[in-house]
Amino acid sequence: MSFSERILNWYAEHKRALPWRETKNPYVIWLSEIILQQTRVEQGMPYFFRFLETYPNVTKFANAEEAEILRLWQGLGYYSRARNMHKASKQVLELHNAKFPTDYQSLLKLPGVGEYTAAAISSFSSNHAHAVLDGNVFRVLARYFGIEEPINSSSGKKIFSKLAEEMLDRNQPAEYNQAIMDFGSLQCKPKNPNCAECVLRIDCRAYESGLVNVLPAKIKGKKSKDRFFHYFIIEHDGAVLMSQRSEGDVWANLFEFPMIESDADLNVAELVQMEEFQKDFGLSVPTQIKGQIKHILSHQNIYARFYKLEINASKLPKKSHWNYFILEKLDTLAKHKLISSFVEHYF
DNA sequence: AAGTCGGGGTT
DNA sequence: AACCCAGACTT
Fold first, then answer.
1. How far is the CA of A43 from the C1' of C8 (A)?
2. Model confidence, pTM
3. Is position A33 annotated as part of the catalytic site?
4. In the prediction, which pLDDT does A298 show?
């Protein structure tokens, strides 16, 4: 039996029932695919339902405020996905007369839609013959063919991309694409794959050569950097001073409290000596609210401290990214996890 | 080709 | 602590 036949047979028995598999609506599939980029199915599922309910079609999405979309996206991470979705939805209104495209090339032009997502939407919605290549497919192919080229190298991407297209079942691209991803996710897992009962085992090169736990090979990235954030809770007349993060750094455009970053951890005495502190807050003395919180991201470890700061409003500098919000409005702002968690138990 | 962009689960 | 997740984009 061929590779794709075995994958499809396995899929017929083990497929997951996922809500976005019930539709061929490219808008709904796009919604699910963007949400699922680098995101587990279980984590993305509630967001998928929330977005579909709030924006039932691409026109509703395009006409929404970006701030509202970001708030709905809150907690999911990689927030540029939400901003790109808004741009993409507007592009669909203007260039495609509000009819969501299904052809690979048009999809590829949408912000936030890369080769994987274009292949996914075009195949799932219209059964177009484009092979998906995500983390699952990389793993299945690397192991089955015993390819030791790193999957995140330039040459590796070319090799696997070509191979994925060759293996695609062109008679049923949509079904095959779903099948190989489920196979990678449930059967050919990163750790402890179920080789004991695997339809590919008889000619799996990695199994044959004992490389299952080595493949796929990957070039290691840089080590995480440590950053130290000091947040200041400044309240006046039932309103809290919030700051909107700039672009070009983590959590672009999201809201948080005014803060100062330092190269190393500081105690209060060292903090108030910082030039930046004195420039913004003068001789005010911060009162630490709780202990240090460690917030781990893929590429940086953030150590945060929160302080209450009593200061006369007239002594604060005016900054375009600083604004007061009454407590009731605080919930409507899109905040990153570090801040939303704090707000949840503090206010 | 390498770096950046989140949050959470698994091992 | 390391790795990974229905990746895309910038430098």
1. 19
2. 0.97
3. yes
4. 94
